[in-house]
Give the backbone structure.
Amino acid sequence: MLRISILTLMFLVLLFSSCYYGAMQGAHTLGKNHITMTGGVTLPAYFSAESKREAEEDRIDYLETYPTADFTMGATDRIDLGISSFGYGVGPMIKYNLMNPLDPTAVSAMLNMNYVIPMQVMLPRLSICAGHRFDRDLEVFAGTDIGYGPDLANIPESQDGSHDWDRVDNTCFSCIRIGCKYELKPEGSPNANRTYLPESILFQFSIPLDISRSMILAGLAITY
């Protein structure tokens, strides 16, 4: 019942997932037959109040708080497959760990192919991430994301104030990110059988590299 409720919430989230900066994942893969559902939110923080006011007034390089969601399963110890929602759409993803899955250090590549629903176009995003797991609980990671698709930081408005999708241009986008993932129910821990306890919590900071305004994006994700 809990997973059905979370899945329903994730479906609703994709309707409002408005940007593509910062894949909310660490470097390690899940492991074979491991299935997770993750919901996250990213909050943009401008470096000055003036930049925020200008962005709100002219709507140029303007980012709002946006959610993301993922349903992921471990196809093998090195490969994860799943469905993710971001950038006003949803699509498949694949993640591959280049290192031995048993090693504490991981280097992975993840490819998302998102279908942007309002524009009916594809948005590919490639994420490269390296991370190290300390003990069995904490992973610290850093990575970079790059992709190509609708410029969701610059969506023109129509006369009635709604998004004018016919005038949205395509653009290359990129960011760097750093974060940590804390396992709440590692194998063998006293919490392992607590059904309603999340599996992990992820904190992440991302910096967009292709927009004119200086800002940092703070992200939080919870995995069941």
